Amino acid sequence: MIKEIDNKTVIRKCEAGFTPYTYDINIYRGCAHRCRYCYALYSHKYLESDNFYDDIFFKKNIDLLDKELCSNKNKGELVGVGTVCDSYQPLERSLKIMPKVLSFFIKHKTPIYLSTKSNLILRDIEQIKELSSVTQVYISLSITCMDEKISSKLEPNVISSEERFMVAKELKEETNAFVGVHLMPIIPYLTDSKENLTAIISRAKELNLDFVKAAPLNLFGETKKAFYNFLDREFPRQSREIQSLYSSSKGVKDNYIRVTDFVKKVKAEVGFHNKCTCYEWKKEEPKQISLFD
User: Fold this and answer.
1) Please, which pLDDT band fits residue 217 given cuts at 50, 70 and 90?
2) Shortest CA distance to 131 belongs to which of 166, 196, 79, 187?
3) CA-CA distance, 114 to 80, in Å (whole number)?
C-alpha cells in the first residue's frame, strides 16, 4: 500500500540530543529495503499499520519545507535527511520528491546530513554537487557486510556492498561533499569478524572516503521480536548466541565496549583516520575525531 500523509510540517526537531543534526526530515515512513535489523519498525504504530516494509507513506506537502528552512529557529542548522527511512528507496524513483527537497536546501544554503543505501542518489548528483559548493554536505552509505551471502539475507532489497562503495566513490569524486560509511549495525556472530570489519574499512581507505562511523546492533521493541524470528529461520546457531548475549543489559554493554575497542583497533591496523566528522560541521577545518577514533 502506498499512501499520502497530509503533513502540516516537513522538518522535525530532534529531541535525542546525540545526533550531529538539530533537525531532521523523513519524507517516507516505512521502507521497501526490508533490512531485517531496522530499528524504525516501531514508528508504524503511529500510522495505524503493522507492515513497515509494504505500507509506504509519503509526505505530500513538501513545499512547506521552503518556508521552514528560512525560519529563524532552524536557519543554517545541520539537517538530517532520511535518518529513519531511506529517502532513496524504490518509491522515490517514480515520486521524485528528493529533487524538490534538494532544491530548497540549495536555495537556503542549508547544510545537510544524508544517509542512504541506494544508488538512486546518483540521479541527483548535479544538485548535490551544487549544494556542496555553497554549504557543507555529509553523505553516508550504509554498509554492513562484504559477504554477499549474509548481506543479501540481512538487506534483501538493497544493492550489493561493493555497488554502494561505487556510489560513494562517484559522490566523492564528483562533488565537494564529505562522503563516508555507516558501518552499522555491527551484528555479533554475523558481521563482527575482523575479516569483515577490515574489508569495509580498508575499502573506505582505498577510495579515500572521509569517515567511517560504526555502531553495534541495537535491539528493542518490535525490532527485537522481528529480528529474532528472522535469525531463527536463517541463522539458527547465531540466533541462540545473539539472544543469549542480548538477554541482559550487561551483555549489551559489554558488547558495546568490545565493538568500540575492536573497531578502533582495526582502524589503527588499516591506517584509516576520519578526515572529518559532521559533529564538527560548523568549523572551517573539520577535526579528525569520531566516536571510535
Assistant:
1) very high
2) 79
3) 6
Decide if 132 contacts 125 (C-beta within 8 A): no
By DSSP bridging, strand 28-29 and strand 112-116 are unpaired
Q: Would you say how long the chain is, in residues? A: 293
Closest C-alpha among 192, 86, 211, 209 to residue 146:
192
* Residue 147 identity (one-letter amino acid): D
Using omega within 30 degrees of 0 as the cis cutoff, is the peptide bond preceding 286 cis?
no
- How much is the average pLDDT of 73-94? 89
Total-model pTM: 0.90
174 is written with which cell numbers? 564528483
Q: Name the DSSP class of 210.
A: S
- Quickly count: other Cβ atoms within 10 Å of residue 85's Cβ: 21
Pairing of strands 112-116, 137-142: parallel
pLDDT value of position 42: 76
DSSP H helices, the chain, are 64-69, 92-95, 98-108, 125-132, 148-154, 161-174, 194-206, 221-234, 236-245, 249-270
Residue-wise DSSP of 45-108:
GGGT-S-TTT-EEEES-TTHHHHHHTSTTTTT--EEESSSS-TTSTTHHHH--HHHHHHHHHHH
Instruction: Please give the grid coordinates belonging to residue 79.
Output: 539537517
CA distances from 41 to 45, 115, 225, 233 (A): 8, 18, 10, 19
Cell of 112: 545537510
